[in-house]
Amino acid sequence: MIATVLVTGVGGPAGRAAATYFAERGHRVVGTDVRKVASAATRFHLVPMARDPAYPAALIDLAEAESATLVVPTVTEELPIVARLRPVLRERGIGVAVSEPAGVDIANDKLLTAQGLARAAVSAPATCPGSMPGVEAAQRLGWPMLSKPRFGRGGRGVLVHRTLADLGRVGADEVVWQAFLPGEEYDVNLFVERDGRVPAAVVLRKTGLKEGLVGNATGVERVDRPELAALAIAAARVLRLDGPLDVDLRLGLDGAPAVLELNARLGANVLTAREVLDALDDAWRNGRCA
Q1: Are 80 and 122 contained in the same domain?
Q2: Domain match, 157 and 201 both
Q3: What kind and span of H or E run contains 107?
């Protein structure tokens, strides 16, 4: 069955991956972004930025005009908005690959994520709110420590601080302070059904990071680490997330893993974990993304 899939953010790696996958499956792919970009999409539309009040209506109107039967959001900032549009899109017969708003809101907030995981005894780095002075945070977390945007995307804006002098590099945006874990970093790609089943869980080792010690992955390789997949699944269940998920983990000095963050969307490296896309395709075709 050839159908129309609307993929947002096709200029980013997750959006490009989704557009490529569904185009290869023979579907008609409609891509969106805030600027003109090249992608595997059959058709392309410019849309307002997620924070623009016009964005929700624009997305609904576009999905209806293009006769989309599935919307795949891949831009972090839009996830809370699209999650709240799910009932409206469902009424129009359009499935959406996104979790419920409550879980998405927590996943988009690195402080709430760390606090929620800690309460549930799911391993995560010690984290302090950005309202805490950096000197006090360093006393609690030790050196080196990280500052990262509380509402940021992936590894963007993450800084390693080794001394008090480094604290002057923190930007103006709201941040969290977090203990630095020195071990290898992993990317777990999941698909979680709404009944809790997990048909796809793929662990990728990050072979390089853009900023050296931190940042987005410059390369990945598949590895067999079932204990890391289990930790990522436990974190997803704590936040009650479903659909396609991207979970970043890192090892401590003792080799024990901890959850850095959860992204309630497809991951940038999902084409190396195609089982997740296959699970999404199956859920959509069989009416489980409604």
Answers
A1: no
A2: yes
A3: helix 101-107
Distance CA 93, CA 60 (A): 12
Residue 114 CB coordination number (10 Å): 23
Class of residue 221 by CB neighbours under 10 A (exposed 0-12, middle 13-18, buried 19+): exposed
Q: Which helix (H) or strand (E) holds 238?
A: helix 226-238
Could you report the per-residue pLDDT of 137-149, keeping only the tens digit for each?
999 999 999 999 9
Q: Which residues contact 260 (CB under 8 A, 6 or more apart)?
A: 124, 125, 181, 185, 248, 249, 250
- 52-56: long-range contacts (C-beta < 8 A, 24 or more apart)? 55/81, 56/81, 56/85
C-alpha dist (Å) from residue 159 to 25, 171, 177, 242, 261: 40, 10, 10, 30, 16
Do 147 and 255 lie in one domain? The reply is: yes
Domain for residue 19, yes or no?
yes
Pairing status of strand 95-96 against strand 70-72: parallel
Q: How far apart are CA 38 and CA 111, in angstroms?
A: 35
Tokens found for residue 103: 């879980």
For the chain, which residues score pLDDT lower than 50?
none
Mean pLDDT of the chain: 94
- Strand-pair category, 200-209 with 185-192: antiparallel
Contact (Cβ atoms closer than 8 angstroms) between residue 216 and residue 155? yes
Q: Which domain holds residue 206?
A: 110-269
Q: Classify residue 278: in a domain, yes or no.
A: no
